[in-house]
Amino acid sequence: MGLALCCTTALLAGCGGATDEGSARSEVRPPLKGSPAVGKASKDPDTGDFNGDGFDDYAVEVDFEGPDADRSDIELAVVYGSAKGLLTGSPVRVPDGDGEDGEGDDGEVEGFFSEPLRADLDGDGFTDLIGSRGKYPDTRTFALFGGARGLSAPKDLDVPDGFRPLAAGDFDGDGSVDLLDGGKGTIDDESGEEWDPRLPAERERGEVLFGPFNRAGAPARSWAMDFSQHGYTTPLEAHTGDFDADGCTDILLPYGFDAEQDDSAPDDLTRLAYYRGDAKGGLVPGPDVKPDLYDAMSTVEGLRGVTVADADGDGIDDVIGSGEASDNHAGGGSDPGEITIIYGSKSGLGKGRSAKKMKQKAWSWGFDPKVGDVTGDKVPDLVLGDNDPKGNGGEVSLLPGTSEGPDLDGAQTVSPLTDGLPSTTGKPYRWTEFGSDELLDFNGDGRQDLIVLAEKWERKKPAFLAFRGTAEGLDPGQVQYFAPNYLKPTGTTATRPS
């Protein structure tokens, strides 16, 4: 079945109390200290909650600047939720390397090698945090295992050397979490040099590790897979969801390459591959979706990014694509920002209700879409960003959910100019890079809260702003402020709270 598109175009209203620079600001409260509540295991643990206490927890990679401008400390910080808000004064930390201050054995800052994943890896009813650290090929995959009192100290997993956990899901539908590595070919080696897209054999190999994993971090079995498109490229990232409600996790793999001037490039390259979870095979190439998924969601400039979530509340995951746009045409003018939702169904991805396309006049509108129930009405809402609006350095918009999908006309927008946001100086920098980072219910009231990262909030230094979700939307009057230095207390690194 083809994909029919219904299109909505509107100019966002400046909701949320936006005012002139220097308007009323609220005071910054001290860091909130305490231990998370003791939780309990669940048959289907919330991926946002590491200790099962009903409050979602925030995990973020932070680059702490040291006194030496040439040194930095990269750490993964975990902040637990509570009825009062995020416990920003009592974080746990995971350094990125073996040595102190995130340095490896050679004294170089290593960095985390993959985006941390949330899943119940060992099947004990608590969500775990999985990632990898180090420099390729000397990477180590680790897990912080969830428990009633919080996350454990990081433990290296018993996985193949150089394994990069790109995605987690139940690909074969057996009830256990599996991990996927898409291969190593397009990973930036931080040298500033581009790798040859024609991959050597050791970088081509993808692999799926099937659960259940034991506490030593060993999988039940493994399976090699080739995601390299004839050895030409490997996926940049992965997005998982169950698009046909069959109980097996499906996966979308975006690729980044420039093959226009390369005569050696295979003819059948794709920029967005779809693999379907399968009880017998684990992962198999997905059925064709017409029009092509990439073409359906991209603009003339391409596809900016992909998000997977249940956008219409029917219990089946959907794909939200953000179309790339440009404000620099030779003839002047710009493309509109564009969001496309392709709905999942029991018949398959794109084979149920018609896709929904939304446009907005600004080319920069539509960055980093996220889905969650912010208003608590049991209908998913859509949050997305505009990183280059007129008059400030970024905006975040909430499109309330309806039975027909996100309501563009009823959007609420918050920005650095929004009245009431907390500030230590009373006058944050209006050109800060202001963008959504994560939707989590960190106070357990049944509404998703939004964490915004403002890269240059005050004195051009970063800050986090945690907006409470309410029945009316995001509340600028209930925003919890915390700076990166809140997340770096003196003391030991990640251990389970006592």
Automatic annotation (TrEMBL):
<protein>
    <submittedName>
        <fullName>FG-GAP-like repeat-containing protein</fullName>
    </submittedName>
</protein>
<dbReference type="InterPro" id="IPR028994">
    <property type="entry name" value="Integrin_alpha_N"/>
</dbReference>
<feature type="compositionally biased region" description="Acidic residues">
    <location>
        <begin position="97"/>
        <end position="109"/>
    </location>
</feature>
<feature type="region of interest" description="Disordered">
    <location>
        <begin position="16"/>
        <end position="54"/>
    </location>
</feature>
<feature type="compositionally biased region" description="Polar residues">
    <location>
        <begin position="412"/>
        <end position="426"/>
    </location>
</feature>
<feature type="region of interest" description="Disordered">
    <location>
        <begin position="382"/>
        <end position="426"/>
    </location>
</feature>
<feature type="region of interest" description="Disordered">
    <location>
        <begin position="89"/>
        <end position="119"/>
    </location>
</feature>
